[in-house]
Amino acid sequence: MTSGSARGGTRGRRARVRVRAGTGAGGGRDANASGGRGTCAVCLDAYVLPTTTRCGHVFCARCLQAALRHSSQCPTCRKKVTKSSCVRVFL
């Protein structure tokens, strides 16, 4: 029997992935832009101008605007959302 496996000896272990702040789709924004209070489900970065929908989901203002230009549905739960029903959140 040989030691290790065909996968380079990582038998039973999961690979760890490290993501640095500012390397996501957000274009290099600071990970502490929202004081560590959450992550936008669209850009996967810290909230920038957090905005909530009627259904209670929170996104960056620009991410939500872009999503609503594409579809009039919440990016998370697909409930109907209008621009006028969205509210800026002050965390």
Automatic annotation (TrEMBL):
Coiled coil stretches, renumbered: none
Q: Which InterPro entries match?
A: SLX8, Znf_RING, Znf_RING/FYVE/PHD, Znf_RING_CS
Q: Where are the annotated segments for Disordered? A: 1-36
Q: Its Gene Ontology biological processes?
A: ubiquitin-dependent protein catabolic process
UniProt-listed SUPFAM superfamilies: RING/U-box (SSF57850)
Pfam families in the record: zf-C3HC4_2
The RING-type domain, residue ranges: 40-78
**Molecular function as annotated in GO:** SUMO binding; SUMO-ubiquitin ligase activity; ubiquitin protein ligase activity; zinc ion binding
Q: Which domain of life is it from?
A: Eukaryota
Name of this chain's protein = Zinc finger, RING/FYVE/PHD-type
Q: What is the native source organism of this protein?
A: Ostreococcus tauri
